[in-house]
Amino acid sequence: MRALIVDDDFYSRNMIHEILRQVARCDIAVNGEEAIEAFKRGFSDGDPYNLICLDLLMPEMDGQQALREIRSLEKEHNVGPQQEAKVVVTTMLADEKETHDAFFLGGATSYLVKPIDEEKLMNEIKSLGLVEE
């Protein structure tokens, strides 16, 4: 599995990386613009991401906009719904509007509230079919 961790917070990035590196090849981006560039590189290299852990509130380009761009790029490359990257929104917000927008407007797969707990993250990626039980 290949994962992209997108978060402007150093602690959050490292925490998610420590958890995921046991089961995935991980890349890191600190904002939405870096995430889009990494995502494009994955396509051009023929090695797209299976999982994206995406913070919503970031400088430069926020997670909402990055998610819309990612889904748009997948459409351009004729990636069907079953092959889309699983996007787990990671946020400190329990903000219903942000969460609603990420799911219904952006196409997020699921979300976890920070701080990210190893058991919750592993259970989430197992439920998404990305790692074996």
TrEMBL record:
Coiled coil: none annotated. The keyword Phosphoprotein applies. InterPro entries: CheY-like_superfamily, Sig_transdc_resp-reg_receiver, ST_Response_Regulator. The modification 4-aspartylphosphate is found at residue 55. Keywords: Phosphoprotein. Residues 2-129 form the Response regulatory domain. This is Two-component system response regulator. It comes from Pseudodesulfovibrio portus.
